[in-house]
Specification:
There is one protein chain. With about 575 residues, the protein is an alpha+beta fold. The protein has a domain at about 270-375 and about 435-550: Serum Albumin, Chain A, Domain 1, CATH 1.10.246. It has helices at about 45-60, 65-75, 115-120, 140-150, 155-170, 175-190, 195-200, 215-230, 230-235, 240-250, 255-260, 290-300, 310-330, 340-345, 350-355, 460-475, 480-485, 515-525; strands spanning about 10-15, 20-30, 35, 40-45, 85-95, 100-105, 170, 215, 265, 270-275, 275-280, 375-380, 385-395, 440-445, 450-455, 490, 505-510, 530, 540-545, 550-555, 560-565. The strands form 5 sheets. It has a 7-stranded antiparallel beta sheet. The protein has a 7-stranded antiparallel beta sheet with strand order 9-6-5-13-12-4-21. A 3-stranded mixed beta sheet has the order 16-17-18.
Length: about 575
């Protein structure tokens, strides 16, 4: 397998950036140009899914229709990071009302599974695989909530391209083929049922490799049922019964009633202002506000005098991350079950108190006192100005290993992210949504859309969001450069699952960070290492309101594509 490392073009040149400012830069990180278009833009992690979204736009659908179509295709084409066995979150800019809307389409824990069960089984953490981490899959209900509120064409037309590819096949791309070979092999060797029948038998007895044709007729049939019968075809009736019976046969607790009672929730996005730009995330049970907390702390430092990728840049960023993640571990949870002090956590006063804790050396922090895996990300914009930021995942790669018979998909293992320690915000309870890592993002400027974006990658996601915002605003990169610039990932903070912090943790660096910066970080007491992966995946669409042009970008480290018309 090839290692995907962004190229770095080193030069000294005069450029005109997307903010309309002249600048001089020493490094351009873009692996390719931005994609420019007037009538619509689709950016996903798979070229065929991008083309499906574009076709929907060209044939009268809007951004939301195209996003659902592309997401359905990704559940087939990139099952290593998505699928209808998982959850979904979205932020929508509606051009008619000129407002942002947030959708939390994450599922809840089984009602009959209690904390007492885990105590009796002497489990300190919920297992990664098998029936116990399976929560209700929320993606399909998310599609229909989005479609009911914003959709413009029939769902059968939206799902038709994915159904066709599932029946007739498509060639596996390099990175997805690599991960599928690893994942399917792991689940097969571990003895999980229906893996061979779903992923191998349906492909002439062998899992295809890169460039070979892959089919999933079981998934095609499930999509047909959903297209005809709506969300109830998934959450009630035959499909729901198959899911529930299978999980209970495997020793799990998910029931038909859990599926039938599932519903998504429309939520109000929250924001902070970062140097004149409003950065928007969804409130918990996701971790989006961690990115906002980081930006609140970082905006107190003058980055006009700090170079990108310098020791001071990475030091301040890492310390801000540590502070935010300790709060994340203590407070973030399903807000129906826990009082999460979102307003206080995002306040200027709290950020100032936290900022004062940052010194010249690497430090470990505690949460502030306040009263009171693999994933896909995609974004679409249309000719009318509607934009959607959508993220969807099964959590650990393909998910839990639990594949209901003849349905064509694996169920998520998102329930692993509950804590089993009593008294914590994210402690397991029946009917509760687990802490979530997947987060869509959006930026507005003066009350108008500026950029829809997201960065995949588990705990890296808030760090990735903050890095993209800083790359665009502090370092004047364009939308493609912002994603291609070298990344870094701090690990070792406390977690919402109850794991304590590991001292000062460790900064993992991607290639492109200078030797001088590495030495400088070590001199400040940071632990530093290099890593080939773990830096997520990125898609973005920026709106140039002056010229009425969309700027699209896609992750160079993966198989994706941004395209417009």
């Amino acid at each position: 397998m090839k290692i995907f490392i962004p190229s770095v073009l080193v030069c000294c040149c005069f450029v005109f950036n997307s903010f309309g400012q002249d600048r001089v830069t020493g490094e351009l990180f873009a692996t390719r140009s931005e994609v420019l278009a007037q009538n619509g833009m689709v950016a996903t992690s798979h070229p065929l899914a991008t083309q499906i979204g574009l076709d929907i736009l060209k044939n009268g659908g809007n951004a939301i229709d195209a996003a659902i179509a592309a997401n359905a295709a990704l559940g087939l084409m990139e099952p290593t990071g998505s699928g209808i066995g998982g959850d979904l979150f979205a932020i929508v800019w509606d051009a008619k009302t000129k407002k942002l809307y947030g959708l939390n389409a994450s599922g809840r824990s089984p009602k009959k599974l209690t904390l007492n069960y885990f105590e009796k089984e002497k489990l300190e953490q919920i297992p990664s695989f098998g029936p116990l981490p399976v929560s209700v899959p929320g993606a399909v209900d998310g599609w229909f909530e989005l479609h009911k509120k914003f959709g413009s064409i029939d769902m059968d037309k939206i799902l038709a391209p994915a159904i066709s590819y599932a029946e007739n096949g498509f060639p596996l791309t390099e990175l997805i083929a690599y991960y599928m070979q690893r994942s399917v092999s792991f689940f097969n060797k571990s003895g999980y049922p229906n893996i061979t029948d779903t992923y191998i038998t349906q492909n002439n007895g062998r899992l295809p490799d890169e460039g070979e044709i892959y089919k999933n007729p079981y998934l095609a049939n499930t999509y047909k049922k959903i297209a005809k019968g709506g969300r109830d075809a998934f959450y009630k009736g035959e499909v729901a019964k198959t899911i529930a019976n299978f999980i209970q046969q495997q020793g799990g607790f998910l029931s038909e009633k859990d599926l039938a009672e599932h519903h998504s929730e429309w939520v109000t996005p929250v924001s902070v202002n970062y140097r004149g730009y409003d950065v928007w995330e969804l409130p918990p049970n996701g971790q989006g506000i961690a990115a906002l907390q980081m930006l609140q702390i970082l905006k107190g430092f003058d980055f006009s005098e700090i170079e990108f990728g310098s020791t001071e840049h990475l030091h301040l960023f890492t310390e801000a991350k540590k502070l935010a993640f300790e709060d994340r571990a203590r407070y973030y949870a399903d807000m129906i079950f826990a009082k999460v002090p979102v307003t206080e956590l995002l306040s200027d006063n709290y950020a100032m108190k936290r900022r004062k804790l940052i010194g010249d050396r690497a430090s470990a922090y505690e949460a502030g006192e306040i009263s009171a895996g693999e994933t896909i990300y995609m974004t679409v914009a249309d000719k009318d100005g509607n934009m959607i930021s959508l993220i969807q995942s099964n959590y650990r790669g393909m998910g839990s290993g639990m594949v209901p018979p003849k349905l064509g998909f694996m169920l998520q293992n998102r329930g692993e992210l509950f804590s089993l320690k009593k008294g914590q915000a994210n402690t397991y309870e029946p009917g509760k949504r687990p802490f979530h890592t997947i987060i869509p993002a959006f930026i507005t400027k003066d009350g108008a859309p500026f950029m829809s974006f997201g960065v995949m990658g588990g705990d890296f996601q808030p760090q990735g969001h903050a890095q993209i915002v800083m790359n665009m605003i502090d370092f004047n990169m364009n939308v493609q450069e912002a994603g291609d610039a070298p990344r870094w990932d701090h690990t070792g903070s406390s977690t919402p699952t109850g794991l304590p912090q590991e001292g000062i943790g460790e900064i993992r660096l991607e290639s492109g960070i200078s030797y001088e910066t590495i030495r400088g970080l070590m001199d400040k007491g940071h632990k530093v290492s290099f890593g080939r992966g773990g830096y997520g995946g990125y898609q973005a669409i920026m709106w140039d309101s002056k010229n009425k042009v969309y700027h699209g970008a896609s992750e160079s480290r993966k198989d994706g594509q941004a395209a417009g018309y």
